[in-house]
Design a protein that fits this description.
Length: about 160
């Protein structure tokens, strides 16, 4: 499977992803995964237009992402998956993606969410999703930049008193 990294970041493609993460991971394919974004022609067009030169950008739903990474035609690509939500990441995991580690990069404040770090806010639904990923053996880390250490995201949830 060609997936080098999976990041949960609701900002999707932005400077940190384009400049820092793409270079650090040596990717040649960036897949934005979210069913709603993939179904929105305008959002797809915008995301593809901000792609860094030399990197193929795809905006796919969960099922199409799984089909893409399973296709032997793509086995030599270095794929970076950017999920809009933790629920997208769980759907990929339950669909057989098989990654042992996922990075929580940014989750903006929404009504009913609680602060975990300066850039990560979670809802009770998000917490349940992270619990399922962790219980399935996925190591969840939190870091904004690839040069930062890998913070244990489940410990961060406990420290923020959103995980009991």
């Amino acid at each position: 499977m060609p997936v080098k990294h999976l990041r949960i970041d609701n900002r999707l493609i932005h400077g940190q992803v384009v400049v820092a993460w793409a270079k650090h991971e040596g990717i040649d394919t960036l897949i934005v995964t979210n069913d709603q974004v993939a179904a929105d022609d305008f959002q797809r067009m915008i995301l593809v237009s901000v792609a860094p030169p030399g990197i193929k950008v795809l905006v796919l739903g969960v099922a199409d992402t799984l089909a893409y990474v399973r296709d032997p035609a793509h086995e030599h690509e270095n794929v970076f998956i950017l999920c809009k939500t933790p629920e997208d990441a769980l759907a990929l995991h339950e669909g057989g993606l098989g990654l042992q580690e996922m990075n929580v990069g940014n989750m903006a404040f929404v009504v009913g969410s609680k602060k975990v770090s300066k850039s990560v806010f979670v809802t009770p639904q998000n917490v349940e999703t992270f619990k399922k990923l962790s219980q399935a053996g996925v190591r969840l880390t939190c870091r904004m930049m690839p040069t930062e250490g890998k913070n244990d995201f489940m410990a961060m949830l406990r420290n923020a008193k959103v995980l009991v």
